Amino acid sequence: MPTSFGALCTDFYVNHTLSLKMDLPDERETVLHLFDRVRKSEPAMDRFRRYEDELSLESSRREPEYKWLALRRTSVRTGHVNPQSLDAANTYHKLIMQLAPYHLSLSPLDIDHHEVLFGFDLECKQDHDEVVFESLLADSPLGNMAKLSSQGQSKVLDAQPSFGFSLDKSGDRQVYFEIKTRQKSRRGRSSRYSDEPISIFLTLRQYGPVNDVEQLQSVYDELAQHCEQLAGDHLIPDLLTPIARYITSGSA
How much is the CA Rg of the chain, to the nearest whole Å? Predict the structure, then answer.
């Protein structure tokens, strides 16, 4: 099913994290065998990088669309930036869920939780925190917080709302909505970060073990479909659209 999410923002991306209870194997051959196998299916992913706390296989980040795979001590993380469709992103993430258990010797008992993240970046050259505050909070009771100075000289320095909700009685499935603005100087100046976007994240997390590693792909499918619904029903109308409208209106 083609996605229109990318048309609503500067960059749209789908990330997945498989969080584990035990450390991943770090033998040279184990990691290289997995990365070589991924590269056979994704030839563009030919950049092997070593960071302080992770090993990563990536395609070129100079392209608008790119993919990455990162191994940390207790997690397998993947990302697909600006996918042509949600189906394409889902196919990539499920490929890793198919390969990782075999190459990394994962056990059902080892699975702590899944996370699927939908990320929306909005280009914004205005003051990020002012944009978020004015578009989402100014007309709410929280808007009165901006009236701290009787001379009208108060300035919003930090407006990064986040909300988390349990979606079932057990608390095993949780959703988080978060808005990330880029930092300012200590005095509130933001000109150094004028090329950075405002980011809006929807993260769906599922706790609990699985009975078989073969279920990892189906669990991902269920979470991705739920993310798509939550994005369409809540994130876009309640967060993204008001912020995008405020940016394009020139009100900031």
Answer: 20
